[in-house]
Amino acid sequence: MAARTDLAEWKALEVHAHDAASAHIRDLVRDEGEERLSWTAASAAGLNLDVSKNRIDKNTLHLLIALAKACDLEGWRDRMVAGDRINTSENRAVSHMALRGGASPHGDEIQQAKAHMLKFVRDIQEGRLTSATGKPFTAVVNIGIGGSDLGPRLAADALRPDWSGGITPHFVANVDAAELARVLEEIDAETTLFIVTSKTFTTQETLRNAQTAREWLTQHLPDGAEIDKQFAAVTSNRSEALLFGVSANSIFDFWDWVGGRYSVWSSVGLALALAIGVENFETFLAGAAEMDQHFLHAPLAENVPVLLALIGVWNRNFLGLQGLAILPYDQSLSLLPSYLQQLDMESNGKQTGRDGARTAWDTGPLVFGAAGTTGQHAFYQWLHQGTDMAASEIILVLNARHEIEAHQDILLAHGIAQGEALAFGRNETATRAELANSGLNPEEITALLPHRTFAGNRPVSTIVMDRLCPRRLGALLAMYEHKVFSQGVIWNINSFDQWGVELGKSLAGHVLDAMNKGGADAGFDPSTRALVKRVVDARGRANR
Predict the structure, then answer these.
(1) Is 510 annotated as catalytic?
(2) What's residue 543's pLDDT?
(3) Catalytic: which of 18, 402, 505, 517?
(4) DSSP string for 403-460
(5) Which residues pair with 405 in a beta bridge?
(6) I need a labelling partner for 318 at 20 to 30 A (CA). Which of 183, 254, 416, 435 fits?
(7) 390 near 324, Cβ under 8 Å?
(8) Residue in 190, 205, 240, 346 annotated catalytic
(9) Phi/psi of residue 172, nearest 5 degrees
(10) SS3 content of the chain, % helix, strand, coil (to 5)
(11) Is 172:179 a contact under the CB 8 Å cutoff?
């Protein structure tokens, strides 16, 4: 397989980037005017994408599409849909799209699992399934980590106005008991369902939290109460879930052809479905399915996730930008940056290609972000005037789902203005004029001028939706899944494994074993040995 950097299309983009090095987004937009929007905008499933505030011209897009074709993006897309084992390092298919209605050889088992889950949701919401003391459930606690947590947690938080059936969702991921303790303070033992979400049912953090939850129920429920009635499990390891004490009817399937970070559409979304109800959960899936159809059939130049992916490749590989800021101007999407950190960085944060060789090109960016104007008072200073540069993706939701309308225009004005400021900046002439108008004398203007001038030329893509609802959220998350997949194809990496998280987890077992043995030397380096001893000594004093 030819290295990406050996492709003629890659080399053409390198030449183009060199020629465009002095271009400024401000000038590109000014010179093209309204006509620029005709090829830098695309829409799908209620989402509208504008990439006009990027350092691109028509030729840039033409060359990027040629690169995508040379990397066989469309072929890889078709193989994924067909159920081919494109996750080569684990010899697995990648079939998360089938969970929201796409064709799949797994169609029958998907439908059976979905019917099982949705019946369970209805039975709880309608009072047919109750707690160990016969009371209706009023809360659900999802215990999982990574993909078994972030997807349903984000969606449940984003769709709070859609909560129905009187069930409040809670989420516990961190093995730090502070998170679990906080949740336990907020719930009633007699009306809470715990869901243990773990593909293998061996994840240390999840099982420790689940065992602690079981012990808490034992302490707070009447003697002889059937605690199993208050547990469900989402897993591919039914035998371990049964051994833990989950009844067979409360175990929901989770397959190896669904990666954790792509799994909110499956039974991993059980806590979400309990919170928002069956109809809203189906609508959530339908929004994702609508984006799937667009991704599969729209021409590349008009394909929203592909266009966003290509702009990301251009910024990362040809303009040298290392970071990507996710900036949702809607508090309901405050968890989106964290969700996309995992989706993007766990998928594409790799230096080994599909062929096993180290890539000679950069891959996934550093993803960070925060919601709305809170981020403006944190890291936006770096975005605007830092010595490094990151691209930004601003997400605007036009209509709020609360009744305090006076805030919405202010919020949207900030989002739009930040995109303008990042891309266009403010030159010395404009800055000097503004300072002069404020009444400053020439000496003061000269002193302030370097601090108040903005270079701009920071790339910005903007995603606009009319409202945040189950359908639009489904489309938004599916769009990002397809974006990440498309970039992985172009970078020739496997976006569906995550071997990089395994080493630290494995070593943690050795460290814990040494701690349990009083810090006995387990062949650690001097620094690690000293840290283990410090912990053992501190824990020993605390326990005396």
Answers:
(1) no
(2) 52
(3) 505
(4) S-GGGHHHHHHHHHHHHHHHHH-B-HHHHHHHHHHTT--HHHHHHHHHHH-B-----E
(5) none
(6) 416
(7) yes
(8) 346
(9) -130, 125
(10) 60, 15, 30
(11) yes
Q: What is the pLDDT of residues 482-537, one digit of tens each?
A: 999 999 999 999 888 887 777 877 788 788 888 888 776 668 888 888 888 888 88
Is 50 exceeded by the pLDDT of residue 4?
Answer: yes
Residue in 34, 297, 377, 403 annotated catalytic = 377
Retrieve residue 460's tokens.
């910005």
* Active-site residue, 377 included: yes
Task: Tell the residue number behind the tokens 């991993």, with chain if given.
Answer: 268
Q: Which two tokens stand for residue 99?
A: 């969970």
Q: What is the CA radius of gyration of the chain?
A: 26
Helix axes 526-543, 502-516, angle to 10 degrees: 50
Identity (one letter) of the amino acid at 18?
H
Cβ–Cβ under 8 Å, residues 64 and 13: yes
CA distance 214 to 231: 9
Between CA 498 and CA 184 the distance in angstroms is 32
Residue 227 has pLDDT above 90, yes or no: yes
Q: Mean pLDDT over residues 165-178, rounded? A: 94
pTM equals 0.94
Q: How large a percentage of the chain has pLDDT more than 70? A: 98
